[in-house]
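Structure request: FAD/NAD(P)-binding domain-containing protein, Tothia fuscella.
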Amino acid sequence: MEKEHIRRVIIVGAGVTGLTLANALEQAEIDFVLLERRSEVDPRHGQSIAAEPNGSRILDQLGILEKWRPLAQPIQWWHERDTKGEILFRTDGIQLGGLARTGYELGFGDRGDYLEIIGANIKDQSKIHLNMSITSVEESDSEVTVTCEDGSVYHGDILVGADGVRSKVREEMWRLASSMHKDLVEHDRKALFAEYTCLFGITKTPAGPSPGDCDYRYDKGRSSLIFAGPHGKTYYFIFEELDKVHRGNDIPKFTKEDAVKYARKHLTMKIRPDLTFADYWKEADNQNLVSVEEGVFKLWTYGRIACVGDAAHKMTPNIGTGGNAGIESAAALANVIKLISDQSKGKLLTREAVEKSLKSYQNRRMKRANFMVKGAGEITRMQAGKTASHRFSAMMARVMPGDFVANFLSDYFCDSVMLDYLPPPKASLEVLQPFNSSQGASQKEKRMQRAFLALPFLGIFFFIKTILAPATVIPFMMPFFHAKQIIWEGGSAPIRTQFYGIKQIDDLWAPFNTFFTPTIYGYDPISRAQTMTFLTDLGVIVAIWAFESVRRANILTFARLPVLFMLLGQLRGIGVLSPLYYFLYYTCTPIEKFKSSDMRLGRRNFAVVLLPVLLLMFYGPGFAMFNWPTLAGREAWLFFWQMFPVWISLSTFVLSYVVPDTTVSDRFTVPDRDLPAIRYTICILSALSAAVWIWTCLTKAPQLNVFALLLPERLPNQSTDFVSFAREFLRVDALSLYGNTFLWLAYLFWDLKYAGMVETSWIRLGLYLTLSTIVLGPGATAGLGWLWRENVLATRRHKDAITVDNLRRKSGLVSEVGMKASG
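Returned structure:
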């Protein structure tokens, strides 16, 4: 046959990856030829495919997605089931992780339909050559040459192996590269391994499941995925662990007879309480049994050759990411080829120049591909209960199932690749979680790194813990305990030892109450004034910690336990516990947790009731213990106030049931619904704190100035009497709380500035802090600073998020074409 003189890109393999790359190159106006060994592009082999946001966004750019949507069924409900088919949990979080956050649904359909639509979108069908099995590849400084079984020879600048997990192109690349990269080739020949088998196929949907129902069955050593798709079809996958891990050429292959035996072995498997696998298998269409191969190769490119899709990275199908990962790789490679083409300006590039550019494609994709392969494999093992760790992970996933599913999936999609030379589709621009190359599962900040940055908090914790050690209090308190009464100049009062009628609780708080008597009895007016301001300032901090405790981003972190830190703070000093709280918060809650705007959201019903609860359970008892007409009454209120963390927790829990909890719907549609109640609460409490601060500064001068309110005169253990000791102890406690809170806010604004969400200079931020603290007091300053951050989280996006505002600000990439793309 006469030679073809295609001087551009040769693509081998007309699967999902190869067809996507062909579409991408065609729209980049780059010549290509597509070689397929089969006699048809869209064979019907009983296979399904999952369309996920990372792949759908690219197909949307190419104008393909709208043609696919009528043939696919979006996932509606995600069920996880035990060995009896009973529901472990049921969630619609899959919709949050898909459509709400990314603009694209997760759906299933026939792979044959998928291939037909992508293939038909290629305008020049003459570039698709069927029945072309390649036999050899050769390359030179000026070109790469492919020879096929029928004698056809194709020339091009770049050869792309999109021919699957048993890629012939990869084999030829290994042959050519073996002299230069012997170790890499040897590694890659053994890189693939299989630990599980999978029986998959299409069948008729039996009575019971509704379209969009996704059933995952957990078991020991096996699992299943059953999806009720469109047009009465169901797609099924039955997984089972192999006898051992098989590698390379040792990976088993199976016949149709093996598939039948395998199916019969699992007929009694309970899919639902009233359905077994037998109910699905009897109507099965063309099922297949395969070893589930996994692995990421180290050598994706050599010279003018590049591998994409399963030829470069292969993963388990439990979460349907294989085909979509191939689409991502096709887009990443198309971006590089477009760049090569633009740089060449019509001239042939040398082999060295092409090789260097192709390596950048692998570098862009390697980290994410490794994560996707590992993540899919971990889900496979978790569902099959591989180890105790996997079983524990499965249990933890059910604690917050909706969040787990949504967060896992949207993390998976966030930092995915798109076609850089085509406008981003409108559907992906105005969403809860914009795509972002700097965030996502493969871009996570290291917790140890954040812990290292937050070490100053731990240093402060141990320092303040030493200064405010209980041992320093005992010498000053012992005379009162022996006398069983408080004695001061001009008066005395018996020590109250009972209030709750529960000996353990009364015995716990009685000594601490004695410490506060100079303040609440009023025989130290300076301490009384500074403690009044401290109490109102503390209320703002309590509100902030309370709001953080119900924030979705703080699920399964220590921020969920403010009652623990506040109660321990009552016993050991809030200034001692606060740096530990802030250390744990900063370590566990990086800015990336807020990449989706619904993660800032807390519970609106909690936000609504928090202010009245604080007024009744914190401020009311607090002011009563200062102003009650009798000393015995003040000490009784002190007993009650000491337990405010418990009363606030119980009251908000009870009252939250009075106001409907709308979090489930808010996270999809109104992720800032709690913000008005948060603003109202923080502003009211900050105003109260500022009023007490200003009143104290104006009415207590010259006895007490601003610096006396903020700074201790000496260390507590340097005091010579109980009154001055208690005063300095409380000053150090308050200073530690203020200082650590301001330091925490500085860390949070550091994150915001690094993410490009706040552009205010550090000099101006420091000026705001100083002036606000002097004029309004530390409590109001902390409240307003935290509220500023809250507004930023609700209204601004990370600098690398692909949004309309960011694109306009950076380079005006949002064109009329992009804004009219499918949405």
